[in-house]
């Protein structure tokens, strides 16, 4: 059964329409549209409870934080599984509308770090390494990557990314500017194992990326079983 995820987003928000009205106060274009619809100058939108609606009964989302939250929830959530552009657009456009939504969706997917990491694994040249089997359940197989080059804040200047290869769910962990294998093991135990327990099979893939997403070094470790 395919879950209607976007329809459920309004249930997750304790006051979704309140958020729409709050964000709308900062969107001059949205406020102008409200006035034009009230005056009968524009007929392709209508107003219910102070909120604009577009064709199909879709909520017109003002520019700002709420659009970003919807993009993030529709793409990054644990069960959404980092949807591709067409699927993400289909999900969002069922319940929501805003101008140039397709461009925003495409840009969001293109700049998604997890998707870039996953794509790099699929497109790298074949070697002598053993192929990784497709995991049959969440958190049986993971990848670990680092983003380097952030400003040093309290000794922290990098991010350890742990991705579940089944669901594509990512856990981002703040890490020191300089770290050793022992540091990585400590972070992994503290932020992943502590909550998930030990898995039967862990697959480690170590890649180093700059903040702009350019891959600078890749090391692919052979899988092992406990």
TrEMBL record:
One of its GO terms (molecular function) is nucleic acid binding. It comes from the Eukaryota. Residues 65-120 form the Integrase zinc-binding domain. This is Integrase zinc-binding domain-containing protein. It comes from Dorcoceras hygrometricum.
């Amino acid at each position: 059964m395919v879950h209607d995820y976007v329809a459920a987003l309004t249930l997750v928000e304790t006051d979704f329409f309140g958020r729409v009205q709050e964000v709308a106060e900062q969107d001059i274009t949205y406020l102008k549209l409200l006035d034009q619809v009230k005056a009968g100058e524009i007929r392709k939108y209508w107003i219910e409870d102070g909120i604009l609606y577009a064709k199909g009964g879709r909520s017109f989302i003002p520019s700002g934080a709420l659009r970003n939250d919807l993009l993030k929830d529709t793409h990054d959530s644990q069960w959404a599984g980092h949807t591709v552009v067409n699927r993400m657009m289909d999900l969002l456009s069922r319940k929501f509308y805003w101008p140039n939504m397709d461009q925003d969706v495409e840009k969001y997917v293109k700049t998604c770090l997890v998707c870039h990491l996953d794509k790099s694994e699929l497109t790298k040249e074949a070697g002598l390494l053993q192929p990784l089997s497709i995991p049959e359940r969440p958190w049986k197989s993971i990848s670990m990557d680092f983003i380097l080059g952030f400003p040093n804040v309290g000794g922290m200047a990098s991010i350890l990314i742990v991705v579940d290869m089944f669901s594509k769910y990512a856990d981002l962990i703040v890490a020191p500017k300089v770290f050793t294998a022992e540091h990585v093991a400590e972070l992994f135990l503290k932020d992943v194992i502590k909550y998930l327990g030990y898995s039967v099979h862990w697959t480690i893939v170590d890649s180093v990326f700059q903040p702009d997403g350019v891959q600078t070094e890749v090391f692919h470790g052979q899988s092992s079983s406990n």
